Amino acid sequence: MSKRIKWSEWLQQTVFVGPGLAAFVLIVLAPFVMGFYYTFTEWNGMDLNHAKWVGFSNISRIFGDDPRFWQAFWFTTKFTVAAVAFTNATAFLLALLLTSRLKTRSLLRTIFFLPNVIGGLLLGYIWYFIFVRGFRAVGEATGIGFFNWQWLGTPNTGFWGIVIVFVWQTAGYMMIIYIAAMVGIPKELAEAAKIDGAGKWQTLRSIVVPLIMPAITICLFLTTSNAFKMFDLNLSLTAGGPGNSTESIALNIYREGLVNNRYGLGTAKAMIFFFGVALITITQVWFTKKKEVEA
Question: In DSSP terms, which residues pair with 41 in a beta bridge?
Fold first, then answer.
């Protein structure tokens, strides 16, 4: 009887877990292991029989003679810092606004969340039209110099153009996470603080922020990883230009492997990128986890 029970449990686990595990191995694990192997090869990405083992030469080349990769790394780092800060600040303020007693808060939540539903490439092309055509038309009609800037034509304005679109797309999703955390704060704590004479700023700083630290941890993790991996907006808005001044690491890796047909070198960059992002996000989660408190 016990053998039948064990067999039944094993069969159930296989039926329910097996397909998902098989898909994970085929789609995620196997390509990762293959990518780790191709990091140490010279390969054009086409002929499997001509993947030449070169050891650590790709790694040495990246660290010794690839200024374009490090330019992309510096751009991505600056972009991540700006995008994470502005996205979370915007999402937090929207969450504060939409947890107040506004009659239209449900409608506004939907409106602010909608940009997250639009695909990155499509969203990028929409904003490309806005920056190039829409702002120019508004500038000509109003004479306001802000709208007449070459928004995607210079390194500085191109950088901020991508940041603006990233924040516009991502803030609504983070807002929902912050709202869920704020709604879960016990009302008794805020009422007790009010009775004790605490103002809105003191309540926000001493009660709201500490109690929503789990949400802050999640939002910082998501925005940091998404900003580092940003590709579609970069491709559709500036394509890395002018020159290579707004090229992200993801776009640099794509061009190295699939445009220049240096798949081994591109995979080596992807592996360095993966471990770098993993280290940064793990450090961020560890740091913010220490700040979490329980209600």
Answer: 53
